[in-house]
Amino acid sequence: MPRFSTFPLLTSACLAGVLLLTACSPKYDWREVHGSSTPFAVVLPAKPASHTRNINLDGIQVNMTMTAAEVDGVTFAVGITELPDAMQAQKALDSMKTALVRNIGGTIRQEKSSTVNGVPTTEIEASGPAVPGAEQPRLMLARFIAQDRHAYQLVVVGQENAVERDAADAFFTSFKLK
User: Fold this and answer.
1) Who wins on pLDDT, 73 or 2?
2) Residue 32: which residues within 8 A CB-CB, separation 6 or more?
3) Would you list the domain boundaries of the chain?
4) Distance (Å, rounded) from C-alpha 31 to C-alpha 22?
Protein backbone atom coordinates (compact mmCIF):
# COMPACT_ATOMS: atom_id res chain seq x y z
CA MET A 1 0.00 0.00 0.00
CA PRO A 2 1.53 3.39 -0.98
CA ARG A 3 2.23 5.81 1.83
CA PHE A 4 0.73 9.24 1.54
CA SER A 5 3.04 12.01 2.66
CA THR A 6 1.36 14.84 4.55
CA PHE A 7 4.39 17.15 4.28
CA PRO A 8 3.46 18.72 0.90
CA LEU A 9 -0.14 19.10 2.02
CA LEU A 10 0.88 20.68 5.32
CA THR A 11 3.34 23.01 3.57
CA SER A 12 0.66 24.10 1.08
CA ALA A 13 -1.84 24.73 3.88
CA CYS A 14 0.68 26.83 5.83
CA LEU A 15 1.58 28.84 2.73
CA ALA A 16 -2.10 29.48 1.96
CA GLY A 17 -2.64 30.61 5.56
CA VAL A 18 0.28 33.05 5.41
CA LEU A 19 -1.00 34.50 2.11
CA LEU A 20 -4.49 34.87 3.55
CA LEU A 21 -3.20 36.66 6.65
CA THR A 22 -1.05 38.97 4.52
CA ALA A 23 -3.99 39.85 2.29
CA CYS A 24 -6.13 40.65 5.33
CA SER A 25 -3.55 42.77 7.13
CA PRO A 26 -5.25 45.86 8.58
CA LYS A 27 -4.42 48.64 6.15
CA TYR A 28 -7.42 50.52 7.45
CA ASP A 29 -8.00 51.20 11.13
CA TRP A 30 -11.69 52.14 10.92
CA ARG A 31 -13.08 54.24 13.77
CA GLU A 32 -16.36 56.04 14.29
CA VAL A 33 -16.25 59.83 14.48
CA HIS A 34 -19.09 62.07 15.70
CA GLY A 35 -19.63 65.71 14.90
CA SER A 36 -18.86 67.86 17.92
CA SER A 37 -21.44 70.54 17.19
CA THR A 38 -23.31 69.02 14.24
CA PRO A 39 -25.40 65.87 14.36
CA PHE A 40 -23.60 63.19 12.33
CA ALA A 41 -21.51 60.04 12.63
CA VAL A 42 -19.07 58.56 10.09
CA VAL A 43 -16.39 55.90 10.03
CA LEU A 44 -12.87 57.03 9.01
CA PRO A 45 -9.99 54.67 8.12
CA ALA A 46 -7.37 56.19 10.47
CA LYS A 47 -7.04 58.64 13.32
CA PRO A 48 -8.61 61.87 12.04
CA ALA A 49 -7.58 65.47 12.39
CA SER A 50 -10.03 68.40 12.36
CA HIS A 51 -9.64 71.99 11.30
CA THR A 52 -12.15 74.86 11.15
CA ARG A 53 -11.78 77.90 8.94
CA ASN A 54 -13.89 80.65 7.44
CA ILE A 55 -14.84 80.14 3.78
CA ASN A 56 -16.89 81.96 1.16
CA LEU A 57 -19.60 79.88 -0.49
CA ASP A 58 -20.73 82.14 -3.35
CA GLY A 59 -21.09 85.17 -1.13
CA ILE A 60 -22.12 83.33 2.04
CA GLN A 61 -19.44 83.59 4.74
CA VAL A 62 -19.46 80.48 6.97
CA ASN A 63 -17.16 78.41 9.12
CA MET A 64 -16.39 74.98 7.71
CA THR A 65 -15.03 72.15 9.82
CA MET A 66 -13.08 69.49 7.97
CA THR A 67 -12.39 66.16 9.65
CA ALA A 68 -10.03 63.99 7.64
CA ALA A 69 -7.84 60.91 7.73
CA GLU A 70 -5.26 59.67 5.22
CA VAL A 71 -4.19 56.15 4.32
CA ASP A 72 -1.47 55.51 1.71
CA GLY A 73 -1.92 58.92 0.10
CA VAL A 74 -5.72 58.69 -0.11
CA THR A 75 -7.65 61.25 1.92
CA PHE A 76 -11.08 60.59 3.41
CA ALA A 77 -12.73 63.80 4.61
CA VAL A 78 -16.02 65.18 5.88
CA GLY A 79 -16.68 68.91 5.60
CA ILE A 80 -19.53 70.46 7.57
CA THR A 81 -20.90 73.95 7.61
CA GLU A 82 -23.92 75.56 9.25
CA LEU A 83 -25.72 78.13 7.15
CA PRO A 84 -27.72 81.14 8.34
CA ASP A 85 -30.92 79.51 6.98
CA ALA A 86 -31.97 76.25 5.33
CA MET A 87 -32.87 77.98 2.03
CA GLN A 88 -29.17 78.53 1.32
CA ALA A 89 -28.25 74.84 1.60
CA GLN A 90 -28.48 73.90 -2.09
CA LYS A 91 -26.53 76.99 -3.16
CA ALA A 92 -23.84 76.08 -0.62
CA LEU A 93 -23.65 72.47 -1.92
CA ASP A 94 -23.26 73.66 -5.50
CA SER A 95 -20.48 76.01 -4.41
CA MET A 96 -18.75 73.21 -2.45
CA LYS A 97 -18.89 70.89 -5.48
CA THR A 98 -17.45 73.55 -7.79
CA ALA A 99 -14.64 74.39 -5.34
CA LEU A 100 -13.63 70.74 -4.81
CA VAL A 101 -13.44 70.02 -8.54
CA ARG A 102 -11.49 73.25 -9.06
CA ASN A 103 -9.08 72.27 -6.22
CA ILE A 104 -7.94 69.18 -8.13
CA GLY A 105 -7.96 71.03 -11.47
CA GLY A 106 -10.44 68.41 -12.58
CA THR A 107 -13.55 67.65 -14.51
CA ILE A 108 -16.65 65.75 -13.47
CA ARG A 109 -16.87 62.29 -15.10
CA GLN A 110 -20.18 61.29 -13.52
CA GLU A 111 -22.83 62.99 -11.45
CA LYS A 112 -26.04 61.59 -10.03
CA SER A 113 -28.70 62.61 -7.59
CA SER A 114 -30.42 60.13 -5.32
CA THR A 115 -32.01 59.79 -1.92
CA VAL A 116 -29.99 58.11 0.83
CA ASN A 117 -31.88 57.31 4.03
CA GLY A 118 -34.59 59.77 2.97
CA VAL A 119 -32.14 62.63 2.40
CA PRO A 120 -31.45 64.06 -1.10
CA THR A 121 -27.83 63.40 -2.07
CA THR A 122 -25.63 64.36 -5.00
CA GLU A 123 -22.67 62.14 -5.88
CA ILE A 124 -19.83 62.94 -8.25
CA GLU A 125 -16.76 61.25 -9.63
CA ALA A 126 -14.13 63.67 -10.90
CA SER A 127 -10.60 63.33 -12.22
CA GLY A 128 -7.73 65.76 -12.28
CA PRO A 129 -4.13 65.74 -13.43
CA ALA A 130 -1.45 63.98 -11.42
CA VAL A 131 0.34 66.02 -8.81
CA PRO A 132 4.08 66.53 -9.42
CA GLY A 133 5.93 63.29 -8.70
CA ALA A 134 2.83 61.13 -9.05
CA GLU A 135 2.32 58.72 -11.91
CA GLN A 136 -1.47 58.53 -11.90
CA PRO A 137 -4.13 61.21 -12.32
CA ARG A 138 -6.14 62.08 -9.22
CA LEU A 139 -9.56 60.62 -8.60
CA MET A 140 -12.13 62.31 -6.40
CA LEU A 141 -15.33 60.68 -5.23
CA ALA A 142 -17.69 62.99 -3.35
CA ARG A 143 -21.17 63.16 -1.83
CA PHE A 144 -23.03 66.34 -0.98
CA ILE A 145 -25.90 66.40 1.50
CA ALA A 146 -28.00 69.19 3.01
CA GLN A 147 -30.24 68.85 6.01
CA ASP A 148 -31.91 71.81 7.64
CA ARG A 149 -29.19 74.49 7.99
CA HIS A 150 -26.26 72.06 7.62
CA ALA A 151 -24.37 71.25 4.43
CA TYR A 152 -22.07 68.20 4.33
CA GLN A 153 -19.43 67.13 1.85
CA LEU A 154 -17.87 63.67 2.00
CA VAL A 155 -14.73 63.28 -0.09
CA VAL A 156 -12.29 60.54 -1.03
CA VAL A 157 -9.35 61.75 -3.13
CA GLY A 158 -6.01 60.29 -4.18
CA GLN A 159 -4.12 58.85 -7.10
CA GLU A 160 -6.57 56.95 -9.25
CA ASN A 161 -4.87 53.58 -8.79
CA ALA A 162 -4.70 54.06 -4.99
CA VAL A 163 -8.39 54.80 -4.37
CA GLU A 164 -10.05 51.55 -3.35
CA ARG A 165 -13.74 51.62 -4.26
CA ASP A 166 -14.67 49.24 -1.42
CA ALA A 167 -13.04 51.51 1.15
CA ALA A 168 -14.73 54.57 -0.36
CA ASP A 169 -18.10 52.79 -0.27
CA ALA A 170 -17.54 51.81 3.38
CA PHE A 171 -16.79 55.45 4.21
CA PHE A 172 -19.78 56.86 2.29
CA THR A 173 -22.31 54.32 3.55
CA SER A 174 -21.20 54.77 7.17
CA PHE A 175 -22.27 58.44 7.16
CA LYS A 176 -25.37 58.94 9.29
CA LEU A 177 -27.26 62.07 10.21
CA LYS A 178 -28.61 62.03 13.74
Assistant:
1) 73
2) 41, 42, 43, 174
3) 29-177
4) 22
Give the bridge partners for 66, in sequence order.
51, 79
Please give the backbone phi and psi of residue 168, each rounded to the nearest 5 degrees, phi first.
Answer: -65, -45
Q: How far apart are CA 73 and CA 79, in angstroms?
A: 19
Closest C-alpha among 126, 167, 162 to residue 143: 126
User: What percent of the chain clears pLDDT 70, i.e. is strictly above it?
Assistant: 85
DSSP-based three-state secondary structure for 141 = strand
Banded pLDDT at 78 (limits 50, 70, 90): very high
pLDDT (tens digit per residue) in 25-58 = 468 999 999 987 777 899 999 999 999 999 998 8
Amino acid letter, residue 170: A
Question: Which CATH number is 29-177's, of 3.40.1000.10, 3.40.50.300, 3.40.50.720, 3.30.420.270?
Answer: 3.40.1000.10
User: Distance between the two ends of the chain, CA-based, in angstroms?
Assistant: 70
